[in-house]
């Protein structure tokens, strides 16, 4: 069939194919319509309308714009997701630590100790670890302020400098008095800046004070050796330590340093079966007393008596004349003197008293024992606690008398933390010029006319000289967040320097002071900056001649009147300390090492004195404490170990201008501190202590205090037993087998599981109960590293704190272990044991089998891992965890206004900067727990992989291990026979044929696993606690 | 003429005829609800509404509104769950096991008991859902559903997963069993509605009865299905609470980790189930005037079951105490010492009094046949069984291995509110059931009244042997 050739066309135009037709052929209408004339087609209109409608609709549901500005040019040393570390220096008043700051994308997120410092030796404390959050404190000053009347107004730095400069000039012009008030200053460059200021205004006096003064020690050394100084103590060289109310592990002089040294003497191994013997005489139960081998309960008024007794006992042995006084009936005094004398040259006696007379006698004892030159170094003096109580008292009375015209408060807060703070605050109103440089307003700033905020220490350049010839550099880890300015710069500008840049001044100081011309200065500087420390050779110890008047001191002690009522001890608690960082929720929620209380202020009372308080579940009553016309009301916390007739109150509470976190908690007890014999006294006599009927519940993380004689939880022994040949732990759980009831095997040997096999790494941890002092630095470190939520007081009362790592503190009981009712009650003067408790990473994990959705599983390296995304929150795993270390997100703790105060790190824009980007912030309804810092393990493995090498031992350090000043925590690969942990535990595979099997045997006789008999096979071993006691002196 | 047996008393009294049965039971469905019904419904609705508010708060804010803590991760939630599941045991036991054992007295009570089972299981199921931290994911992640995440699958080792299967199977089978039993009775109501000229009711019940016509063959199939389902349900009666008990028995917590749990839990479940059946039926028979169908004889038989199971439970309690001492395990020993002497001793002794001592009163015939005494004791038994679960869950958890973590548990308004929620839910559902469904299995009951053509009166009854 012929194909049709017919062609149809639309019109004559198409047939003709004329250009006009071709032009419009593709369009909808052959003839242009009216809209085409306007240049917009109908379709365009519809398109535009569609876009418009959807754009409006989308805009309506768009999230608020959050500014995230990318780098235009990537800074050379900032790689996203790669952390940078900067060596720096932590100083807070007289407290010091050389540190390494971890920053991510320019934000400091974690602080660790700097091992290069021979002062702090890589040690940190809870306060140091927590200070990173203080950087992001919402109550920081955003810039300089001026106070007009009651209101404070913003002011520019230029105007502030102009006004302050003018006023200073005016004061100087008429010869008025100017004072710079500060805590102990460790920084030589700061001191130089103050010196320059003083040179410009010669009527200036620099007054230093400390929240907790050691002026008595300074004065005693002046009386004994002719010079007011605090020597270096070396506990590591002491085999017998006697401390009379000196909390040297918690707060006395330099606890970080002492903790390090102390741990060395407490470390025992099979090869070194020696350890120090530690006697503590005290009224409150301090963390130091809790670690002592023998603890004598005394009243504060007996501190002098104990020292006199010891003096006389030792003098008798040394053939020196006795002094008057003393009481040989004091328990353990004779035994302590015996041990001290036997350990001459390796002995150390310290006292916490701020009374010059007591300290003179202590010096006398140490002199007789030959401690000077061995355990005490008078050549290397320390610069902490240089506060002068007399000068400060004079300053306050001068201000009150109207003799002072200008005061500059350099980073201190005496209105709050000086006993006469109220008077000072009131009198400041009539001073012509008052300036505060603290980075926060605080109580003192609230009374000052000008607020010239300094940087936070992590934003600032600084230096420090904690000890003679031991220098330390502080470098900023972040650009100042707010419009703050280095206080040293402020001082120099007010002193009339035309231009002051503290960094340049610091650098040039160091060039002048330390750069000896060898090599290029930049290299020298870079090295100092990299190391964070510069240590010049120590001066050789000079022989010292003790010239104290012990008889006068003894008679001064003897004349101390006996107390009629209760005796009060005011002390620094293990979490809040002196209160300077009390607005830090990490510290507020850190359980006090002894009382395990958080977010609360209380008065500790011995069980004997609180017989009518049934202190169960932390429910208690308020008591009034009245002394010398002042009275405060606090809830009672019944504290075993407290001497009957004494009460203890921690400092650091009762803040009014610290910020949302701290304000309103407790009362300020600094005003109770008295001035006795020219120095501040933190113990008071004749205290009236009366019960009220007002009830209160204290938030405590642990309410059951004894370990119920459960040796599977805590195992301990005495040194005498440990020194016996073939010593073995007393407790080895065994089970009978089905086949032969007489044949008993270790519980781990019976299993229906085949057991894991870890071909590569097998992560494990060892925790030495003997060196753990219970300070809690690891708890804070863990919180910061792992973004652990803080939940606040109410939730802690409901027993819902989120800590992944806790320190269990147990008291001994006097009852036999099988008296279950009796062992629930702690002894009057209990032995104390601290046990860090965290996920044990069981190889037969009870949590893993019960999870219905397999959200918690076992890794190929022995980790028990949580998959938050998979968790549905049945809490079955937590119920089935025998160690009770799993934590549930009962609420949404982030981005929830309810938790803004307690948990600013997850609820404020500023606070969120501290979060570790490597760790997920957990959502509501999921379970969480210790991960063995899996993010650090992964980072370590990746580095090794990138460098094509096996991982080295020590390359991965968990946050808790890094923060542990005593080295009680050792983490590592137990598949690697050369690792530190393998050597410590003396670990070997149970089946040499299959070395990667989970079953391992530890040959260290001290190593045991908690709750071994359940057969869950943890990857954490604890090392038995050894008390340096005589053989027969064990308690249940 | 009613035919009476020489050896057995009639199970249905009052000389009821087949017509009477249809009438007595259908009239509840056909008439308007009584004032008593409305009052009960009002109270139940208030409970339900308050509970619903608590549930919403819980879901909105998180599980933290309850009084749970780091140590006690389950308390009222799982206590209530186990309690309701236990109650849900009697229905199927009565229908299935008693059917297999040809216990015909069950016929008057099985319908209501099965309904109770269904509603109790629904109430029970709300707790595992509510107790989850992330309900919005958990309700389906716990099921082995295919997903795009590769090997991501439910954990078949977990007793909680077994629970999911056990409860859902039990619920499904119970529901089907119950519904199949209802079909002929729905047809009766439909037929009566047709006669009465109520078109809507006729349509609705016709649909509900799946167009049942009652042919001989249909009846045959009906009976086969009933027997098959009874056979299927029987092991479920034992398995459900066995598996629930494994939530505890497979754990490592002293007081939970014990092999006695499966039989002990099953006995406890039957014990509490019968108590709840009694509570409900004693009310129902009065409200709906069904005294002739649910007689003292029924009540007595159920009371005997309560003595038996109560004694089994009592033996289990004593065995636990003995073993905790005999095992020589310190933690086990302390766990039980703590139950008896510790801060929750009041709960333990409440449990002992209610569950072990009080049912022994039923040895006395006068008490066993007294309606008032039975009613009071049935409630006491249910209180006791609630305490049993509370004791097992809370006192075991609150003081386990590591003394530093020992805590107390204090319930909040929301713990109580959610419990009331399930009461509201249960009674609303039961009242709706009682109003719209025949509360007694008419078809079966008709099989046990052997009647002639005429109605007999009580006084002539004795003469016709």
UniProtKB/TrEMBL annotation, chain A:
- Domain 4Fe-4S ferredoxin-type, residue spans: 763-793, 830-861, 862-891
Recorded hits in Pfam families, A to Z, give: Fer4_7
Quote the InterPro entries the UniProt record gives: 4Fe4S_Fe-S-bd, TAT_signal, TAT_var_transloc_signal_dom
In which domain of life is the source organism classified?
Bacteria
NCBIfam families attached to this UniProt entry: MoCo_extend_TAT (TIGR04519)
| Listed name of the protein | Prokaryotic molybdopterin-containing oxidoreductase family, iron-sulfur binding subunit
User: Which species is this UniProt entry from?
Assistant: Chryseolinea serpens
* Native organism taxonomy: Bacteria, Pseudomonadati, Bacteroidota, Cytophagia, Cytophagales
Automatic annotation (TrEMBL), chain B:
Q: Which Pfam families match?
A: NrfD
**Gene Ontology cellular component annotations, sorted alphabetically:** plasma membrane
**Topology of this chain in the membrane:** Multi-pass membrane protein
Cell compartment(s), UniProt: Cell membrane
What are the protein's UniProt keywords? Cell membrane, Membrane, Transmembrane, Transmembrane helix
Family stated for the protein in its record? Belongs to the NrfD family.
User: Mind telling me what this protein is named?
Assistant: Prokaryotic molybdopterin-containing oxidoreductase family, membrane subunit
* Native organism: Chryseolinea serpens
């Amino acid at each position: 069939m012929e194909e049709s050739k017919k062609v149809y066309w639309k019109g004559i135009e198409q047939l003709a194919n004329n250009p006009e037709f071709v032009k419009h052929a593709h369009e909808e209408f052959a003839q242009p319509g009216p809209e085409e004339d306007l240049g917009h087609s109908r379709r365009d209109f519809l398109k535009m309308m569609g876009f418009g409608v959807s754009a409006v609709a989308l805009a309506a549901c768009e999230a608020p714009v959050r500014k995230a500005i990318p780098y235009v040019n990537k800074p050379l040393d900032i790689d996203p997701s790669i952390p940078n570390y900067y060596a720096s220096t932590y100083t807070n008043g007289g407290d010091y630590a050389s540190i390494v700051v971890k920053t991510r994308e320019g934000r400091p997120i974690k602080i660790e100790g700097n091992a290069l410092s021979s002062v702090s030796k890589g040690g940190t404390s809870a306060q140091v670890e927590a200070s990173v959050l203080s950087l992001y404190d919402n109550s920081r000053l955003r810039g300089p302020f001026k106070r007009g009347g009651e209101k404070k107004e913003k002011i520019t730095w230029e105007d502030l400098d102009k006004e302050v400069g003018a006023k200073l000039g005016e004061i100087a012009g008429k010869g008025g008095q100017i004072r710079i008030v500060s805590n102990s200053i460790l920084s030589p460059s700061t001191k130089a800046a103050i010196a320059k200021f003083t040179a410009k205004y010669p009527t200036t006096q620099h007054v230093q004070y400390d929240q907790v003064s050691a002026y008595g020690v300074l004065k005693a050394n002046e009386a004994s050796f002719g010079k007011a100084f605090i020597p270096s103590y070396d506990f590591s060289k002491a085999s017998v330590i006697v401390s009379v109310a000196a909390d040297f592990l918690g707060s006395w002089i330099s606890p970080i340093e002492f903790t390090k040294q102390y741990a060395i003497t407490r470390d025992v191994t099979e090869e070194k079966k020696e350890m120090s013997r530690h006697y503590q005489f005290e009224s409150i139960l301090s963390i130091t007393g809790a670690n002592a081998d023998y603890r004598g309960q005394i009243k504060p008024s007996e501190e002098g008596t104990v020292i006199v007794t010891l003096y006389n006992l030792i003098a008798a042995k040394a053939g020196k004349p006795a002094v008057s006084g003393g009481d040989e009936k004091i328990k353990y005094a004779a035994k302590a003197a015996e041990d001290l004398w036997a350990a001459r040259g390796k002995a150390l006696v310290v006292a916490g008293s701020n009374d010059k007379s007591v300290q003179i006698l202590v010096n006398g004892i140490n002199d007789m024992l030959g401690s000077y030159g061995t355990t005490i170094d008078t050549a290397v003096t320390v610069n902490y606690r240089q506060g002068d109580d007399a000068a400060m008292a004079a300053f306050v009375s001068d201000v009150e008398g109207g003799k002072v015209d200008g005061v500059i408060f350099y980073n201190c807060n005496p209105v709050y933390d000086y006993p006469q703070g109220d008077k000072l605050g009131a009198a400041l109103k009539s001073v012509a010029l008052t300036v505060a440089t603290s980075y926060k307003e605080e109580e003192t700033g609230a009374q000052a006319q000008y607020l010239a905020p300094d940087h936070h220490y992590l934003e600032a350049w600084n230096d420090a000289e904690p000890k003679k010839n031991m220098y330390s550099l502080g470098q900023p880890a972040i650009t100042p967040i707010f419009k703050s300015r280095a206080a040293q710069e402020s001082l120099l500008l007010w002193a009339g320097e035309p231009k002051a840049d503290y960094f340049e001044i610091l650098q040039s100081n160091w060039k002048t002071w330390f750069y000896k011309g060898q090599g290029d200065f930049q290299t020298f500087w870079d090295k100092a900056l990299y190391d964070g420390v510069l240590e010049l050779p120590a001066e050789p110890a000079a022989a010292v001649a003790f010239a104290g008047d012990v008889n006068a001191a003894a008679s001064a002690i003897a004349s101390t009147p006996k107390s009629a009522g209760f005796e009060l001890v005011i002390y620094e608690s293990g979490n809040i300390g002196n209160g300077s960082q009390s607005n830090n929720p990490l510290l507020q929620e850190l359980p006090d090492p002894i009382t395990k209380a958080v977010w609360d202020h209380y008065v500790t009372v011995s069980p004997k004195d609180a017989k009518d308080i049934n202190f169960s579940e932390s429910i208690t009553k308020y008591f009034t404490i009245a002394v010398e016309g002042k009275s405060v009301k606090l809830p009672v916390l019944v504290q075993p170990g407290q001497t009957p007739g004494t009460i203890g109150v921690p400092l650091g509470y009762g803040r009014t201008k610290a910020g949302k976190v701290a304000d309103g908690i407790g009362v300020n007890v600094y005003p109770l501190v008295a001035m006795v014999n020219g120095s501040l006294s933190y113990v008071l006599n004749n205290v009236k202590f009366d019960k009220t009927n007002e009830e209160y519940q204290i938030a405590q993380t642990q309410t059951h205090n004894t370990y119920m004689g459960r040796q599977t939880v805590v195992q301990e022994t005495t040194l005498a037993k440990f020194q016996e040949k073939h010593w073995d732990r007393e407790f080895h759980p065994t089970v009978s087998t089905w086949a032969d009831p007489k044949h008993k095997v270790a519980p781990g040997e019976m299993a229906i599981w085949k057991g894991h096999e870890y071909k590569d790494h097998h992560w494990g941890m060892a925790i030495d109960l003997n060196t753990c002092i219970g300070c809690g630095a690891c708890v804070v470190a863990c919180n910061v590293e792992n973004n652990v939520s803080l939940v606040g007081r109410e939730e802690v009362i409901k027993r819902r704190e989120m800590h992944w790592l806790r320190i269990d503190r147990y008291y001994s009981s006097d009852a036999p272990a099988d008296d279950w009712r009796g062992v629930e009650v702690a002894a009057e003067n209990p032995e104390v044991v601290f046990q860090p408790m965290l996920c044990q990473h069981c190889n037969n994990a009870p949590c893993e089998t019960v999870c219905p959705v397999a959200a918690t599983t076992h890794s190929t390296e022995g980790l028990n891992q949580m998959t938050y995304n998979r968790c549905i929150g049945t809490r079955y795993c937590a119920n089935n965890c025998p160690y009770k270390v799993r934590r549930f997100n009962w609420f949404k703790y982030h981005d929830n206004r309810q938790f803004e105060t307690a948990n600013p790190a997850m609820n404020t824009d500023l606070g969120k900067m501290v979060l570790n980007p490597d760790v997920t912030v957990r959502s509501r309804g999921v379970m969480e727990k210790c991960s063995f810092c899996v993010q650090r393990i992964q980072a370590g493995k990746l580095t090794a992989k990138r460098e094509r090498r096996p991982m080295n031992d020590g390359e991965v350090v968990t946050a808790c291990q890094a923060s542990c000043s005593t080295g009680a925590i050792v983490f590592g690969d137990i598949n690697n026979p050369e690792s530190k942990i393998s050597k410590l535990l003396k670990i070997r595979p149970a089946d040499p044929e299959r070395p990667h099997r989970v079953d391992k045997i530890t040959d260290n006789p001290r190593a045991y696993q908690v709750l071994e008999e359940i057969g869950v096979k943890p990857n954490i071993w604890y090392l038995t606690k050894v008390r340096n006691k005589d053989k027969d002196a064990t308690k249940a | 003429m009613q035919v009476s047996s020489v050896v057995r008393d009639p199970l249905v009294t009052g000389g009821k005829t087949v017509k009477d049965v249809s009438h007595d039971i259908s009239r509840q469905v056909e008439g308007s609800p009584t004032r008593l019904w409305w009052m009960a419904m009002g109270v139940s609705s208030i409970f339900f509404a308050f509970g619903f508010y608590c549930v919403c708060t819980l879901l909105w804010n998180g599980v933290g509104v309850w009084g749970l803590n780091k140590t006690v991760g389950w308390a009222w939630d799982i206590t209530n769950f186990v309690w309701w599941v236990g109650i849900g045991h009697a229905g199927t036991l009565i229908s299935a096991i008693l059917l297999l054992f040809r216990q015909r007295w069950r016929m008057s009570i099985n319908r209501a008991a099965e309904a109770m089972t269904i509603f109790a299981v629904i109430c029970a199921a709300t707790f595992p859902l509510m107790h989850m931290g992330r309900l919005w994911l958990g309700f389906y992640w716990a099921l082995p559903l295919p997903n795009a995440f590769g090997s991501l699958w439910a954990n078949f080792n977990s007793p909680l997963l077994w629970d999911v299967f056990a409860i859902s199977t039990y619920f499904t089978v119970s529901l089907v069993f119950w519904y199949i039993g209802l079909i002929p009775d729905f047809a009766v109501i439909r037929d009566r509605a047709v006669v009465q000229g109520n078109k809507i009711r006729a349509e609705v019940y016709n649909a509900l009865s799946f167009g049942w016509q009652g042919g001989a063959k249909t009846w045959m199939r009906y009976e086969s299905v009933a027997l098959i389902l009874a056979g299927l349900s029987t092991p479920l009666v034992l398995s459900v609470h066995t598996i629930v008990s494994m939530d505890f028995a497979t754990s490592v917590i002293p007081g939970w980790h014990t092999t006695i749990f499966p039989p002990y839990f099953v006995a406890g479940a039957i014990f509490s189930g019968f108590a709840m059946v009694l509570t409900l039926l004693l009310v129902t028979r009065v409200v709906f005037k069904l005294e002739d169908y649910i007689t003292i004889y029924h009540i007595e038989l159920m009371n005997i079951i309560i003595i038996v199971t109560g004694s089994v439970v009592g033996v289990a309690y004593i065995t636990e105490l003995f073993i905790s001492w005999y095992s020589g395990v310190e933690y086990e020993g302390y766990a039980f010492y703590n139950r008896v002497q510790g801060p929750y001793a009041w709960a333990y002794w409440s449990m002992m009094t209610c569950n072990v001592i009080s049912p022994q009163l039923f040895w006395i015939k006068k008490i066993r046949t007294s309606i008032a005494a039975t009613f009071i004791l049935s409630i006491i038994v249910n209180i006791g069984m609630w305490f049993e679960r509370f004791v097992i869950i809370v006192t075991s958890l609150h003081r386990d291995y590591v003394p530093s973590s020992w805590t107390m548990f204090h319930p909040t308004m929301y713990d109580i509110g959610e419990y009331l929620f399930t009461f509201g839910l249960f009674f609303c559902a039961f009242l709706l059931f009682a109003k719209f469904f025949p509360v007694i299995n008419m078809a079966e009951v008709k099989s046990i009244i052997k009647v002639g053509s005429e109605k007999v009166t009580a006084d002539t009854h004795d003469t016709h042997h």
